[in-house]
Every structure is written in C-alpha cells, then in structure tokens.
C-alpha cells in the first residue's frame, strides 16, 4: 500500500480548514475582549510533556487541542494593551499570506522561481523607502539580530580588502578590528562581535547624551585613541530607535564621521528605520540614506507576522563577496530551474529559507506604504498622550525623553524601583496590560513600547487607570519582593574599556 500525507477525504479536510480559518479570524476580531496575557494552565503545560505519538489523529482533534491548549496562552502582542517589548501585532492579511506561502512551500534559497522575484521587489521597495540606490542588495533573515551579524561579516571582509578573510581566517590577518556603537545599542551588536570572532571587548560602547543619543565627540576621540594604539577601526553602528527608549543617534553626523574615517556605517533600525514611511517622522532618521547598510524588522512596526528581518546593503558586490559560494549543487545553469544570477543564498548563510517575502509583499500591497506610515505615526501620538499624562502626574515620573513610541517612567520616590517592578508584574498577571520593565541608570523603569496598530486613545486612558489602581494596591499591600533578580534584558551590557 502506498502511503502519503494528503487528506484521505478532501471534503472533510476542507470543512476543517474553514473552521480553523474562522477560529483565527474570530480570535483577531475579538482580541480586545480577552486578557492581554494568561499564564498557561497546568493542564496546558502537561499537554506538552507527552510521549511521541506513533499514531495520528483526525485534524479536527488536533485543532481542538490547539484551541484549548495553545491559542489562549499566546504572548499577547496581538492585543492593543500589549506594550511590553518592541513586538509587532500582526494582521489578518499577514496571516492569510502565511497560509498561502505554506501552501506553495517554496524553498527561497535560490533558483528560478517567482518567490525570488518577490524578494527582490521587497529589496527595491525598501531601498526606495529608505533612500538607498535602486540596485541595493537585500535579503530576508529571521530578525535584526541576525541582520546586524551579517553586517559585521560584510564590513569585516571589506576592511581586509583582498586579504580573503573567508579563506585565511582572522588570526592570519593584520590588525585587530574595532567597532563603535552607543551605550544604548542593542545587545545583539555585542553578540555579533562575539559570533564573528572579533571579540566583544573590541566593541567600543560610546557614552550617550541626555537624549540617549551617541556623543559624537566621544566617538571621534575613541577612534583616534584606537588608531594611535595601532588598532584598526572598521565599523560604526548607529541606532535608529534604541530598544530601551527609542532614542535616535545623529545619523547624518555619524555618516560624516564614517566617511572621514573611512569606516563602514551600519544602522540598526530594527523598528525605527521604518519611521521613514511617515512624512512627519522621516526627518528624525535623516542620514539613514547615507548608510552602507541597514538592518530592520518587518515584524515590528510593519506588523508582518513573525519572523521577517531584513538586511539591506548599498554595495551589492560587497554583500555578495561575504557569502557567495560555488558548491556543485549551487551551480547556475543558462536555462531552466537552476538559472539566475544572484540568489538569496549568496547574500547570507541560509540555504533553505521560507517565503518570508510573500507576507511582506502581501502586507505592503494590502495597506500601502502611506497607511502603514500612518499607523506608525499613530503609535507615536499614543506615546505622547501617555507622556503628557505622566508629566502632570503626582505619582509617576518620566525616566527618559520620548523620541518615538517608547515611554519609560517610574514611581516618584521609588528609589530602588521595587514599586515599578511590582506594578508591571501585577498588570501582567491581571491580564490588564503588558508593559515591560527595563533598567535605566541602574534602576528599574516601567517601559511602554507602543507599537501595536490596534492601540487607541481609549487604551492609553485605560492603561492610565490600571496604573493608578496597581500603584494604590502596591502601596497598600506591602509585599515581600524576594531577591531582586536583574532581568536579562537587552542593551544593559557594559563592557570594560580596554
Ligand atoms: C528588536 C531589536 C533588535 C533585535 O531584533 P530581532 O528581530 O529581535 O532579532 C535589535 N536592535 C533593536 C534596536 C531592536 O529594537
């Protein structure tokens, strides 16, 4: 008997498929009726500690399991009261695109099929939106962490020129490479230095000013000191929208420094780069168009379903040089399915890759750049609304300037941040709202990163009421906070200067 994995009864499967689709459409439509977060039940957790099933079940039974044990216990980032981390909300349109892409099941490492054209279309669109040349090279990756890592590899190879670092390795090459970023840079920049074999201690974390943007004079001094010590500066990473507070480095001035010092200029624009889609916000990221490369996420401020990071490089030859290989099974043919010039597998280490471009294309085609930009702008307006309330509050105080969509604040006279900590956990556990906690200048702060296109003024107003109530409870009911464990958040790393 032949065996395969298609439905035995297509009509029954069709009915179940429609049920699944309706289930998720209802879920998204009624998202605000539910708590923002619910701790997974004991029953649900136990469901995922079972033996490997030898026999299959009807898809209807598996769907029941999903409905009961998985769907109620999501992160909450689809919910308008989710403000915890820089996470996108997704859209129903993006969900459909994911289903269509899974149906096609394209492997987008390369070869001669339309998915590769769709990915190139996205690169061209983003080049246009961010002011890069039309032939800039772009590739989808999981997220900005990986895109930043790829940047390091490209910039490293570029710095060593014809010395062929891919063949010879780092230790065969002269001079220790040094990179620069602000203290507010995401921890993945440090991690990229580790992964690239360059060493985290060779990332200089430059002090930031009162707006939490990199201090140019300190940067220039650090570069000069490193050159004087015989080291090799090679890369400046600017941040457009820091993860903690949404601060933006002076990109134009960083471009000037990079140009005069002959360094690669990369922008970590995970969410902030996309402020360029709003005519009102675009001036904030001026200078981005002068970068050699930029990393950003479609899954954050553009709400493409996870995951969809992107790496865009001005010089397509430099990009390809860092990754292209000539293995026999990657040979290009003049005609047929193996035809084509540059494939995505020439632009990063992934060979098997999903059709991420489809959900990005579907999202952009469905909404248009203008409406996506309006949603981005709206989140910044919501942040202003929250900021204005905190500024006049007797109980709460701002902890950092609000540049884009992130509001960091604390409780007045809460010196060790223990009330802030308690309030955040309370709001999560009650399912009322999901802000996060970060550490600013060594003290815990409440962080509301408003990214969700569903978050409206009434949600901010409800958040304010929940905050007030949570503070009253926290003050009335003194708590044993236990050991104050430092959360392992991004961007907290301090490197010893060497
Ligand atoms: C989110 C974020 C990252 C990491 O991006 P991932 O997509 O989570 O890998 C890096 N830098 C900044 C500024 C971010 O906000």
TrEMBL record:
Listed cofactors: pyridoxal 5'-phosphate
Keyword Nucleus: no
A Pfam family hit: Pyridoxal_deC
Superkingdom in the source lineage: Bacteria
Residues with N6-(pyridoxal phosphate)lysine modification: 300
Keywords (A to Z) from UniProt: Decarboxylase, Lyase, Pyridoxal phosphate
One GO-annotated biological process of the protein: amino acid metabolic process
UniProt key word Lyase: yes
Molecular function, one GO term: carboxy-lyase activity
Annotated PROSITE patterns: DDC_GAD_HDC_YDC
Entry's transmembrane regions: none
UniProt similarity note: Belongs to the group II decarboxylase family.
Protein name: Cytochrome D ubiquinol oxidase subunit I
Species of origin: Methylocystis hirsuta
